[in-house]
Amino acid sequence: MRSFLRLATALAAGATLASAPPALAQSGGTVDLGFSGRYTLVDLDVSQDNALGFSGRFGIFLSRNLALELEMANSTTTGDTDAKLQPYYVRLAYHKPLSNRWTGIIGAGWVHDRTNPDGPGGLYGDDGVSAMMGFQVKMSERFALRIDAIGDILMSPIFQTPTSDLKTGNIALQAGMNFRMGQRQAPKDGDGDGINDAMDACAGSMAGENVDSRGCAIPKDSDGDGVMDPSDRCGQTPAGTRVDSNGCPVDSDGDGVLDGVDGCPNTPAGTRVDGRGCTAPGDADRDGVLDNVDACANTPTFTRVDSRGCPVPVDTDGDGVLDSADGCANTPAGTRVDGRGCPLPTDSDSDGVMDPNDNCPGTAAGVRVDSRGCAIVFEEGRTSIVLEGVTFASGSTLLSAGAKVVLDKMALALVNAPSVNVEVQGHTDNTGSALGNTRISGLRADAVRAYLIEKGVAAPRLTSRGYGPDAPIAPNTTASGRAQNRRVELKRTN
To answer: Strands 143-154, 168-181: parallel, antiparallel or unpaired by DSSP?
Structure first.
């Protein structure tokens, strides 16, 4: 813990040096000498403890920003193992100025680490690669604080065996002093603006220009209108001219015409003007047509007028028929009208019979109707109908699926013809006893009546009766005739 506190104290001390005066910039051939305290996070395969020690560094700049560095370190673990680490480095380091005081550094190269993992017993040599990242804070022309983080990966670890391929890695944090000596050069100022070229964000500024701390030109207000040149859309505005935020002249009299093109300045507030800013003709009757072209002056207020200012025909109720020809004024909106503007008859149930003549309003869609608008149950001139397809199994009163389809259509027609009452009649052929035929024909008629009631036909409109073989419509002497006689009929009763 004390080791961490010492390292943190060194870092804090370095941070306070940011306000120190800047050093001269280095050039090729400049030499750096450094000495640092070092704290190492040791690979667990080497030791369970971390190490404290020191390092020394020699560097020579190959160019303005690139240096070759040689470094040696010596550290000993703080625990019971007392392991020793002696890494030797050869690296290339790139120095990037961040400000007049701060420099960022990154580097990479070769490391040879002599390690004694168990204390006594000799040092073992391992080779590997190393990467470094750090920064430097200038304190004076020659002295600076440097802080680095170094990571080593050893490719031939001391514990490698023929059956294992281990790689070990150490991470070191170090902080110390750097002394710069040898060839130096003063910072360059190519554009003469007083800002070091390395820190000049706007190199090439014009001589004599006012610049900020970054070396960039401070915007000017060439025409003195209070709007800086980069934002001034109307440069060289005459002195004293009122301008807006874009540096352009304003409309002093508020007539919508800028002062620069206003042929009639100081127009009274509220005056209508033309494109030159001069008073425009008025509209005394407020019909939207100026007085100088209004052929019908003094048109009553709210009167619709044409381009000459004269009244135009109107359609007050909006039915498409002008008031002058509208025989039914104030027709409700949306009403269909004839040529006189009067409502047209409608067909509310869309059965083809207009409402005034429809005796059965509300007929269901798709139902055939007669001229009175009522559903057609019986063709004209007929009072009975055989329900073709309404059949029963022999001796049964149960309706077949096909019979129900026929009865569904008949029920719909009867519901839409509320004035029609019918008797459901059951008939048989003469096969079997007359009493049995009469009984089953009645039951079948009852079944049809019940189904029609279930489908919405009012019960009082329906009666049912079985006639057995008493009302044949074909001779019972043939199979075809007997089939015709086995039937269900509807007979109108009113």
So the answer is: antiparallel
Question: Tens digit of pLDDT per residue, the chain (494 long)?
Answer: 333 333 334 333 333 333 333 444 567 889 999 999 999 998 887 788 899 999 999 999 999 899 999 999 999 988 777 788 899 999 999 999 998 899 999 999 999 988 876 555 566 788 899 999 999 999 998 999 999 999 999 887 666 655 445 678 899 999 999 999 865 555 566 666 667 666 677 766 666 667 776 767 777 777 777 788 777 778 777 776 777 777 787 777 777 777 766 778 778 877 777 777 787 777 778 787 888 888 888 888 777 788 788 877 777 788 878 776 788 888 888 778 887 888 777 777 777 778 777 778 777 776 777 767 777 788 878 889 999 889 887 778 899 889 999 999 889 889 988 889 999 999 999 988 989 999 999 999 999 999 999 999 999 999 999 999 999 999 999 999 988 888 999 999 98
Q: Is the pTM here over 0.85, yes or no?
A: no
d(CA 469, CA 491): 17
Instruction: Give the angle subtended at the CA of 27 by the CAs of 208 and 174, to the nearest 5°.
Output: 115
Per-residue CA distances from 467 to 286, 404, 426, 443, 445 (Å): 89, 22, 6, 11, 10
Nearest Cα to Cα of residue 358 among 337, 344, 375, 343: 375
Among 278, 279, 276, 280, which Cα is nearest to 260's? 276
H or E element: which one contains 108? strand 102-116
CA–CA dist 11, 19 (Å, integer): 15
Whole-number Å distance between alpha carbons of 132 and 174:
11
Give residues with Cβ within 8 angstroms of 163, minimum separation 6.
Answer: none
* CA–CA distance, 223 with 319 (Å, rounded to integer): 65
Q: How far is the C-alpha of 52 from the C-alpha of 74, rounded, in Å?
A: 8
Tally of CB atoms within 10 A around 76: 18
- For residue 274, the one-letter residue type is D
Burial of 70 (0-12, 13-18, 19+ CB in 10 A): middle
Residue with tokens 């008949």: 410
Task: Give 266: exposed, middle or buried? Use CB within 10 Å, 0-12, 13-18, 19+.
Answer: exposed
**CB-based contact 323:313 (threshold 8 Å):** yes
CA 400 to mean position of chain CA atoms? 60
* Strands 66-77 vs 51-61: parallel, antiparallel or unpaired: antiparallel
Rounded Cα gap, residues 139 and 157, in angstroms = 40
Beta bridge partners of 86: 114
Residue 32 token pair: 């750096």
- Three-state DSSP at 27 gives coil
In degrees, rounded to 5, the angle at the alpha carbon of residue 187 between the alpha carbons of residues 181 and 192 is: 165
Q: Are strands 462-468 and 422-427 parallel, antiparallel or unpaired?
A: parallel
